[in-house]
């Protein structure tokens, strides 16, 4: 991208992007703390590169009307790939992290090479459908419209984000020590970056909703297992080895079950997806795993909505345990906002959200904080993955993990 690596250009672009309805140049100067001359010069470059356009005029007092600027959302696109045990989700997002194309593939197998070839074929097909462009060797810069930046990859831990390697992801057999960043870059010709699905999901929330950077945000990720992520100052805290937020073995104060780790009452004993499916079978609730765990949880949710007391109790128990973990983590992180999301949460939300709020009642009353469900749906992992690459390319001062 033309000069987009410069910190000031990223700062101006991000300032304009944070005002989707348009922002005057004087406001960009005020918010970026750059000189008017610098902002004017950078804005002209961004407009020439197709990233920014004029968005009408605004009258705010005497004098000339202010020309509004806004980002051209589809000028640049990022691909998000979520390697989830239940499926592989692939999306292409614009600069606002809005999906403009998406597809869902069968779950990862024990053949990573074949799986990545499936992903590459899906990316190629989605790109063709959009008319998206990518630089080809010897062809120079592609069109300024719908230019593909690269790929963000989200996956369960453990992984080595700096090296771009999946080390030992749970529930994905055959993917041990797979250099997924280099491998996917090799078959697509695009740069890629890797992070945990929990971190990706929170990045997607921050990027797509322009959450206030002054807020501390706690994200609860509900998938095959439960994980968490936390951000402060608009940046996700990843820890020293990208393993922050691994809470499956967080004791939640229950002594009725013994975990293989040696403790009692670990969160995973009550919230892993297979626990809910097993409880449904034991209670006589009709759920079939032949179509996958997500479909089984959707059947459980449908049974609850139809009035099945056992189904409601199973989801309520899951949400109660989730709420206890959130209460503990709220005491540790002191967030102003808690977001619950992940690929299986949409199926559990209707019953589960009220139970979570009950468990957090004291915290809500004393902190004035906000608890809400994610607005990104069950593709949050893939949308978050695309947001990882957008943040890496376009946010000022970012340090990219695991980039090829």
Automatic annotation (TrEMBL):
Gene3D superfamilies: 3.30.420.40, Winged helix-like DNA-binding domain superfamily/Winged helix DNA-binding domain (1.10.10.10). SUPFAM superfamilies: Actin-like ATPase domain (SSF53067), Winged helix' DNA-binding domain (SSF46785). Pfam families: ROK. It comes from the Bacteria. Keywords: Kinase, Transferase. GO terms for molecular function: kinase activity. Belongs to the ROK (NagC/XylR) family. This is NBD/HSP70 family sugar kinase.
């Amino acid at each position: 991208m033309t000069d987009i690596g410069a910190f000031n250009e990223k700062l101006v672009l991000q300032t304009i992007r944070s005002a989707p309805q348009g922002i005057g140049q004087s406001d960009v100067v005020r918010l970026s703390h750059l000189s008017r001359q610098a902002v004017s010069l950078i804005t002209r470059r961004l407009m020439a590169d197709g990233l920014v356009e004029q968005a009408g005029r605004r009258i705010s007092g005497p004098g000339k009307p202010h020309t509004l600027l806004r980002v051209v959302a589809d000028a640049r696109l990022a691909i998000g790939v979520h390697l989830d045990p239940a499926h592989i989700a692939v999306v292409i997002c614009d600069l606002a992290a809005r999906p403009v194309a998406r597809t869902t593939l069968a779950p990862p197998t024990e053949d990573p090479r074949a799986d990545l070839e499936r992903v590459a074929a899906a990316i190629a097909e989605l790109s063709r459908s959009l008319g998206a462009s990518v630089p080809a060797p010897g062809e120079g810069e592609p069109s300024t419209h719908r230019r593909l930046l690269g790929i963000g990859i989200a996956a369960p831990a453990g992984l080595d984000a700096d090296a771009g390697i999946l080390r030992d992801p749970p529930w994905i057999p055959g993917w041990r020590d797979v250099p997924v960043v280099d491998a996917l870059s090799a078959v697509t010709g695009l740069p890629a970056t890797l992070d945990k699905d929990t971190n990706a999901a929170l990045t997607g929330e921050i990027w797509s909703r322009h959450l206030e950077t002054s807020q501390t945000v706690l994200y609860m990720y509900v998938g095959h297992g439960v994980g968490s992520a936390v951000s402060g100052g608009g940046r996700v805290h990843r820890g020293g080895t990208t393993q922050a937020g691994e809470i499956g073995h967080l004791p939640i104060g229950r002594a009725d079950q013994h975990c293989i780790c040696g403790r009692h009452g670990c969160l995973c004993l009550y919230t892993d997806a297979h626990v809910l499916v097993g409880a449904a079978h034991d209670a006589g609730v009709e759920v079939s795993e032949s179509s996958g765990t997500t479909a089984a949880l959707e059947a459980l949710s449908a049974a609850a909505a139809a009035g099945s007391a056992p189904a409601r109790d199973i989801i309520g128990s899951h949400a109660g345990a989730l709420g206890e973990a959130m209460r503990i983590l709220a005491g540790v992180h002191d967030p102003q906002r808690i977001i619950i999301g992940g690929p299986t949460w949409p199926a559990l939300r209707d019953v589960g959200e009220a139970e979570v709020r009950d468990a957090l009642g004291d915290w809500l009353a004393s902190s004035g904080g906000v608890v809400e469900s994610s607005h990104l749906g069950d593709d949050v992992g893939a949308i978050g993955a695309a947001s990882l690459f957008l943040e890496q390319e376009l946010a000022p001062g970012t340090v990219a993990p695991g980039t090829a």
